[in-house]
Design brief:
Elements (H helix, E strand, L loop, with lengths): L1 E7 L7 E6 L3 E9 L10 E4 H4 L7 E4 L3 E4 H6 L7 E15 L2 E8 L3 E2 H4 L7 H8 L3 E7 L10 E7 L4 E4 L4 E2 L2 H8 L2 E3 L3 E4 L4 E10 L2 E2 L4 E8 L8 E5 L2 E7 L8 E8 L2 E11 L1
Parallel strand pairs: 1-11, 1-13, 2-12, 15-22
Antiparallel strand pairs: 2-3, 3-5, 3-6, 4-5, 7-8, 7-9, 7-10, 10-11, 14-16, 16-17, 16-20, 18-19, 18-21, 21-22
Amino acid sequence: MLVAFTRFADISAPCGIVAAIRPDGFTISTYRMFMAEGEVPGAVPVDGGDLHAGLAGTTLAVTKPQHFTWASLIGLAQGHDHACIVFPLICRHVGARGGGPDTSWQVGQPYNRTRETMAARRGPREHAARTQEHTMLHFHVPWAGASPDDCALHLILQDGFLPLVTGAEIVEQSIEATMRAVMPVLVLPERAEVPSEGYASVALEARRAGKRLKGASVTAHLETTGGYLPRQRVALTDGAAAIKVGALGLEPGESFKVKAGFRFFPGMAEIICEVV
């Protein structure tokens, strides 16, 4: 499994992540600098040097670990391809010290963001802006029934915090780089000719990290601005399929588009069909 992290300067998440990767899942806690006993309910003081050499000499407040299984997270994809499961960071006000409210930062229950944003077709940044939600963990499920090794876990941190991860190698890279590495994309030719009142066959490919996807099956969901699609769902075996496109009721010189995507990620690829 790919485990990666990104640090941003412009997010408001004054805590870090402690994660232990295991064969069946992972445990997750948040940490921040320890200020006073009871400041963060349920948190315990921990010597920073026990977690990372770079934190030696500090005392951290670490929240109670939460455990999530890979099977439960993959299940949130609900049998569909190309899902991003996110973990929101929940801020709870727990009292007042020094004239301001104390806060407890905890990992909230994960949900399938790809499904949540599908109807409005909102991107991740727009969704975060509208919900005012910081999702500090992303779990990418590339296709239905994927194994944990096929997936990726990505941490999003504020500058100044270290990714304290054990049990797996971790790399620093962009969220987009992680998605390109594990998530499938659909590819169509730019153009195709379709005879008036007839049909044409168009090649559709699924690729992962620039190569045709093999050893896994995905289902493409099709839509069109005109013409006719005998089948709106097409299974790709070893990353390849042929889709049948009809130009029924259209005259030579007209054109229409066919788009291909996944159930909760529509319109990933498109082709212009010219009627001849």
